[in-house]
């Protein structure tokens, strides 16, 4: 529950915050708009489920209704683009992907700046947020959101079929090949293969092979290291994955593993409950977790703030929006959520031994390993992220299908180079 001073602070929103405190001078309000219900858009996610069950607490303290809309990540991004392009005020708090939407939205002037609020709010304790996560919501020293959940890839594996988890990518491929038996309904591996959607998970393979999407400002997807990563990932899914892998996202691979139809899967640790929930998983009691296997360059998984909260610059309830954000992502709520198995972006939560005990021990070890060696991005760091993912994801599909990966990577690299020239002109806010 919130401390009394926080409750009083929320109840006195108008006295504490003004529109100028959000750096939004010049944005008008419609008559009476500030008194309406707070509208929050969220993605279908374990963090959302955990917070949504507690929103009644905020409503009681603030004396304000909260209307929550939940969507898939693609639906959410499309909704934001339509509404923000139209300067629509009917969104207040937006759950968003700092690595996906932030550069574009900030450049377009769609996001409120939070610097002054964070600097003046000792109770919120911005210094407690992990440095890497803070960097991802900051552009040129200006903060546009707060991170609420972090994630890394973890290796999900069947403990009843594998004596010990593979520690290298080579070992994982060999074991997946050996146990792959589609005739018996068992696949060696399942993972994301849909063109743009596969890029985030593929990034860990790319880094672990010594590559990167961008090298010295130029495309890195045509390098020998990138080509080796494309070839490996395609072979893994082509030779040991289920039919139709090129159409699969998290929503498809989770039930495949949960229904006992795969030996290995690699995906985000933040959604581990979806893989082992007794209500939906037949193998939850037989699922183990391990660190991302090492490639030629070692184990280099991504380690990112996957989702954050931000404020629509056109909102008529920006003061209440900030109070909701500080309630949902402050130290107290963050610890409560991590105690329920949602990995946070705050150092204090990770330092809490009771909180760590809420995760399966081998998953906690996997998370610690990912934090120690991880890379702070899982996609190209550009303005038009969707277009970039589409370009660099093309060789993934080619490799899974057994097409000419080298030719596909070469073409993608040339197109990505042209894209990066245009992107550099767009990066200035």
Automatic annotation (TrEMBL):
Residues 1-25 form the signal peptide. InterPro entries: Bact_solute-bd_prot1, SBP. Keywords: Signal, Sugar transport, Transport. PANTHER family: ARABINOSE-BINDING PROTEIN-RELATED, DIACETYLCHITOBIOSE BINDING PROTEIN DASA. This is ABC-type sugar transport system, periplasmic component.
């Amino acid at each position: 529950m919130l401390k009394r001073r926080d409750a009083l602070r929320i109840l006195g929103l108008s006295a504490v915050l003004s529109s100028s405190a959000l750096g939004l001078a010049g944005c008008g309000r419609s008559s009476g708009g500030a008194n309406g219900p707070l509208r929050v858009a969220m993605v279908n996610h374990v963090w959302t489920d955990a917070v949504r069950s507690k929103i009644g607490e905020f409503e009681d303290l603030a004396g304000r209704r909260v209307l929550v809309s939940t969507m898939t990540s693609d639906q959410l991004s499309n909704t934001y683009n339509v509404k923000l392009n139209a300067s629509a005020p009917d969104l207040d708090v937006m759950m968003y992907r700092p690595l996906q939407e932030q550069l574009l939205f900030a450049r377009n002037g769609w996001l409120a700046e939070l610097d002054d609020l964070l600097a003046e709010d000792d109770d919120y304790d911005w210094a407690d947020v992990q440095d890497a996560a803070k960097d991802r919501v900051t552009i040129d020293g200006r903060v546009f959101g707060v991170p609420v959940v972090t994630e890394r890839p973890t290796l999900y594996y069947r403990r009843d079929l594998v004596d010990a988890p593979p520690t290298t990518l080579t070992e994982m491929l060999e074991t997946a090949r050996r146990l792959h038996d589609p005739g018996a309904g068992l696949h060696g591996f399942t993972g994301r293969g849909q063109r743009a959607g596969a890029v985030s998970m593929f990034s860990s393979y790319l880094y672990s092979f010594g590559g990167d999407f961008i090298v010295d400002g130029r495309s890195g997807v045509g390098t020998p290291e990138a080509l080796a990563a494309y070839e490996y990932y395609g072979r893994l899914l082509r030779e040991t994955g289920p039919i139709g892998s090129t159409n699969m996202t998290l929503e498809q691979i989770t039930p495949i593993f949960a229904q006992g139809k795969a030996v290995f899967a690699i995906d985000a640790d933040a959604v581990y409950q979806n893989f082992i929930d007794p209500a939906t998983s037949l193998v939850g009691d037989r699922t183990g977790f391990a660190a991302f296997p090492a490639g030629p360059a070692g184990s280099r998984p991504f380690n990112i703030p996957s989702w954050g909260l931000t404020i629509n610059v056109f909102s008529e309830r920006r003061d209440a929006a900030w109070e909701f954000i500080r309630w949902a992502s402050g130290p107290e709520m963050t610890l409560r959520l991590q105690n329920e198995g949602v990995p946070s972006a705050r150092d204090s939560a990770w330092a809490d031994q009771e909180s760590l005990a809420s995760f399966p021990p081998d998953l906690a070890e996997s998370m610690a390993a990912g934090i120690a060696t991880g890379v702070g991005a899982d996609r190209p760091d550009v303005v038009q992220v969707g277009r970039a993912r589409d370009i660099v994801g093309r060789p993934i599909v080619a490799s899974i299908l057994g097409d000419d990966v080298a030719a596909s990577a070469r073409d993608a690299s040339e197109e990505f180079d042209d894209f990066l020239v245009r992107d550099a002109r767009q990066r200035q806010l």
